[in-house]
Amino acid sequence: MKRIQRVNLIDGPILPTLLSFAFPILLSNIFQQLYNTSDVMIVGRFLGQKSLAAVGATSAIFDLIVGFAVGVGNGMGIIIARNYGAKNDDQLRKSVAATAVIGGILSLFVISIGVVGLYPLLQFLGTPQAIIAQSYLYISTIVNGVAVTFAYNLCAGLLRAVGDSLAALYFLIIAAILNILLDLYFITQLHLGVQSAGIATIIAQSFSALLCFFYIRKKVPFLLPNRNDFVWDQRLYQDLISQGFTMGLMSSIVSIGTVILQSAINKLGMTIISAHISARRIMSFALLPMAAISTSMTTFTSQNFGAKRFRRIQKGVKQACLLSFVWSIIVAILLFFTSPFLTSLISGSSDPNLIANASLYLQISSYFYPVLGCLLILGNSLQGIGRKLTPLISSFIELTGKILFVLFIIPHTGYIGVILCEPLIWVPMTLQLWFTYHKASHQLLAS
Questions:
Q1: Whose CA is closest to 245, among 144, 379, 146, 106?
Q2: Residues 365 and 276 sit within 8 Å (Cβ to Cβ)
Q3: Which of 71, 260, 271, 361 matches a 20 to 30 Å C-alpha distance to 217?
Q4: Residue 157 host element (H or E)
Q5: CA 197 to CA 36: how far, in whole Å?
Q6: pLDDT at 1
Q7: Rounded CA gap, 327 and 138, in Å?
Q8: pTM for the whole structure
Q9: pLDDT per residue over 119-155, tens digit each?
Q10: Phi, psi (rounded to 5 degrees) for 250
Q11: Are 96 and 158 spatial neighbours (Cβ–Cβ below 8 Å)?
């Protein structure tokens, strides 16, 4: 059976291997961010600040949906990567078959929940009455197309699981460009309003999912299961569901905390909503290299765990943390000087209050990026070696912290409390993960 691995994660020097594997993921993440960021930029420029606030008011819900899909895909990809590292082809195909079944069921579940609960959720979050109708049009379109989001992330997760982080990148670049063109066409020519941004996103993601699937069928057919591989294997399904749901739930818990935080932001008015969504989009781009390294560590640790290369895992985590720390310092310096310009560029606004608040968010939070980089790498590495519960506990720490900020701090401090909320919570989360990883790595080396 033909086997590929564009990047050998099990042998050779670690840092060059990680960088070569992470770079396509970084580019993929950049173009993935372009999906929603292009929505923000185009809506802000052509439809105005009210429509920008409508999209911004749903950003936490958007992140919740996409984060859950990405988390489930990456989580089940860990099991596939482990079978690939162990060279167990039969179990590999059965894992892919089970992953497809689980993804389909989850898509139907999310759509059903969205039909019933989206509008009440927007009301619960205190979305201003002036923008709630536009907010609902945008986010309901995204939810109704969630099957496409699952499909792309599952296909991309399959390719990354076997060491191919490059192929999905090409499809994503094409889809991101298509999304921008459709945004412009639907908004400026068809005048479909905010909803058109959601429609463009779903069409573009559908295209990338199809391209990814046909590439797998042609170039790496050993990943595709046969009819006989669609069998009920209780242990396999439990493993995939527990791993996928743990990472999906981990992301969802974080996003639920962000949704709760959004309710406090919505009470601060449309200018703050617009400032916050602009700052968050800039922050997302600034953190992409760290996110790519941490995502790479999931595949790196899971493959080496399957191959029983435990000392290599320990060395990889150290080098990844150092790499992330260096980038954190660089980006903190850049954001300190460029935040006002970047905010104006993203939001399309010259409102000094909007620019000042967004810049303040970026400048303060960037001081804590070294902590966040370590947090992301440790969480993904622990997932890769099968320690599913520890990162989940970390997510509950974040959720609890955000609830406490919303209830007791932000009402008295305003937007400065929103700015400090996540960075201060990152510190105890990182300490908890570090102590658990230190203990787990010594257990592996002793085994």
A1: 106
A2: no
A3: 71
A4: helix 146-161
A5: 9
A6: 39
A7: 34
A8: 0.71
A9: 888 888 788 888 888 888 888 888 888 888 778 877 8
A10: -60, -45
A11: yes
